[in-house]
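Reviewers of the previous submission asked for a worked example of the structure-prediction workflow described in the proposal, so we include one complete record here. The input consisted solely of the amino acid sequence. No template or homolog information was supplied to the procedure at any stage.
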Amino acid sequence: MNSPQVCRDGAYLLDGSCVATCPAHLAASGVGQFKRRCAEPFTCRSGRLVDVDVSYGCKCANEDNTAIAACQICHHRAGEHGEHCMRCNAGQYLHNNRCIASCAGLAELIGYAPGNYGRECRVPFLCADRLDDLGAACKCDRAVGRNDCGVCSWGTVGSRCLRCTNSKYLRSGVCVDVCRDSEQAVGSGVDGRECRS
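From that input alone, the workflow returned the following structure tokens.
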């Protein structure tokens, strides 16, 4: 009798057999009732196992493993099934390793939205030269100048540029190309130019 290649009805493939659950030291992989398997803990990024040479893919799961999560990168940790999200996609926000639609109602947290990927619910912070207060990569909001903003703050009232670069001028928290006729252009270097009334 041949060993099964895939398992059905919510069972997991382990060493050529179908089992009801994975041993505690292994991760359970697979969403739905078909093609689940037990594996050494791994990271799943965009449907592919990171640094693991296998012919099959992976999926990040919601908490009860009934659906695929809106998660771009997740850890399949021992005793878990890929619900530990590290980075969300589809415009979702990361909060407590889960992807949620909005940060509204979360006390003292703001929605950090550098794009459709990598959004997070987090405490207000300063982004200086693409690093936050903890040394992690960050971006300034496109609305305030993104790459033309060297230092920005993400707070409860949104994002605000504090210092422009690339020869742009700072006006009311936004980087602009030129100052208005009624304003005085201050600064001549690449960084720190401002429009003053």
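Residues 12-88 form one domain. We consider this example representative of the routine output the project will generate in years two and three.
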